[in-house]
Design goal:
Helix content is about 20%, strand content about 30%. The relative contact order is 0.14. It is built from 2 helices and 10 strands. The chain is of the alpha+beta class. It has one domain.
Length: about 160
């Protein structure tokens, strides 16, 4: 590759990084018991027609809504190797998806297996569903909780 070709490739990668960063700039909404929790890094807003059961909250990111346990918080991943929109139980490791939910853009999501829930070799569970333009991925030790959360993933209905 010539120097000019390498420069163009570097420029392309820099532009791609800026565009990708812009794709995650939308701030999620939240409603429910922890909507005003100080640990959440979002501005709470009311989501009309929320169907979250008692003790749960409805979160929304880029037109996709999901019901999660009320004690889950949005995690700041700016210091992690990969920045992502992530919700998980308070106190869980911020830079590892050991439990909780992550929104991945469907166009760039490259899973090792098909949609649904799968058990890992270490006995933990993970799975995903597609909703809107996103893959909603979840991991944890409680298979039933993962299923319950993924079952609620849905694109926002525009009226």
């Amino acid at each position: 590759m010539t120097f000019i070709g390498a420069s163009r490739a570097a420029l392309f990668l820099a532009v791609l990084a800026v565009v990708a960063a812009g794709c995650t700039s939308e701030r999620p909404s939240v409603t429910g018991p922890s909507a005003s929790a100080p640990a959440a890094s979002v501005q709470p807003s009311t989501i009309p027609g929320s169907r979250a059961p008692d003790g749960w909250q409805t979160i929304e990111y880029s037109g996709v809504r999901v019901d999660v346990p009320g004690d889950w918080v949005r995690v700041d991943t700016k210091e992690c190797e990969f920045e992502a929109v992530r919700w998980q139980p308070a106190g869980a490791p911020a830079c590892r998806v050991t439990s909780g939910l992550v929104f991945y853009l469907e166009a760039t999501f490259d899973p090792a297996y098909g949609p649904g829930i799968h058990q890992g070799k270490d006995g933990t569970w993970s799975g995903y569903v597609f909703a809107g333009e996103y893959a909603v991925f979840m991991a944890g030790t409680d298979r039933r909780l993962i299923q319950d959360v993924l079952d609620t993933a849905r694109p926002r209905v525009r009226r």
